[in-house]
Specification:
The protein has five helices and 14 strands. By secondary structure, the chain is α+β, with helices and mostly antiparallel strands. The strands form three sheets. It has a five-stranded antiparallel sheet with strand order 1-4-10-6-7, with no helix packed on it. The radius of gyration is 20 Å and the shape is elongated. The chain starts with a strand and ends with a helix.
Length: 243
């Protein structure tokens, strides 16, 4: 018996069935539009009888960039910490098919390496101890990170407007690590500039495991002229006041 658990941070997939050939059929949660690619879930097996497991995401063709599924290689992890890419899958008809060749009674599958809220919070806690870094939160707004003197011209970095683009969090973490661990680089940059980083703008979308939109179905990267999207309102106001 195989079961699918999406009750994990940023977890998201819709389980359908297991067919007579043992293929696990799934569907993407299309959120509020058709841009989604993100999936992340735990697989639980009460009895291992096969050397390979087959999965089919039956509605992959409904993604706007559906050609991106062909030959795409998802990620798997036995513990949720160490991840590796699987062999490339195939877009066959309307479905994206892939196989898992190494698994245990519990393991994880994901479109890309997940960077959920708990990892984000742990990272903020760790960098808060660095004397060069100010981690700031205003009321219920997203955290931002300040390095250097705010009176200097600012380099502003905004990450994770699209929650499924988790690679942005890894890049942001690496950038902050470089600035705080390379005194020569830090001195050159902070001598002329301050650095303001919004490391995870779309918190609600990340929490719900969405790919492109926030918890209210709004694509933050398409809302910069909107006056009713809280994340954008906060960010624009902050930049206007700080300029």
């Amino acid at each position: 018996m195989i079961s699918i658990d999406t009750h994990i941070p940023s977890g998201n997939i819709l389980y359908d069935r297991i067919d007579n050939n043992g293929t696990v059929h799934l569907n993407l949660n299309r959120e509020f539009n058709s841009f989604t690619h993100w999936f992340y879930f735990k697989v639980l097996i009460d009895k291992i009888v096969n050397n390979r497991l087959r999965f089919s995401i039956d509605n992959a063709i409904q993604s706007v960039y559906s050609n991106g599924w062909n030959n795409y290689a998802p990620f798997t992890s036995l513990d949720g910490l160490k991840w590796r890419r699987l062999d490339k899958g195939k877009l066959l008809g309307s479905a994206f098919n892939f196989e898992v060749d190494e698994f245990d009674e519990e393991f994880f599958l994901s479109w890309y390496l997940p960077y959920p809220i708990d990892k984000y919070n742990n990272w903020l806690t760790s960098i808060s101890a660095n004397a060069l870094v100010d981690v700031v939160k205003e009321n219920n707004e997203p955290y931002y990170i300040l390095l250097g003197n705010k009176s200097k011209p600012a380099i502003v970095i905004v990450a994770r407007q699209h929650p499924g683009e988790s690679m942005a969090s890894f890049v942001t973490e690496g950038f902050v690590s470089s600035l705080t661990n390379n005194s020569e680089l830090t001195e050159k940059i902070l001598d002329k500039y301050s650095v303001i980083i919004f490391p995870l703008l779309n918190i609600s979308g990340v929490e719900k495991g969405f790919h492109r939109v926030n918890g209210e179905g709004r694509d933050l990267n398409r809302c910069w002229n909107s006056s009713d999207v809280s994340e954008i309102i906060f960010l624009v106001k902050y930049l206007e006041v700080s300029s």
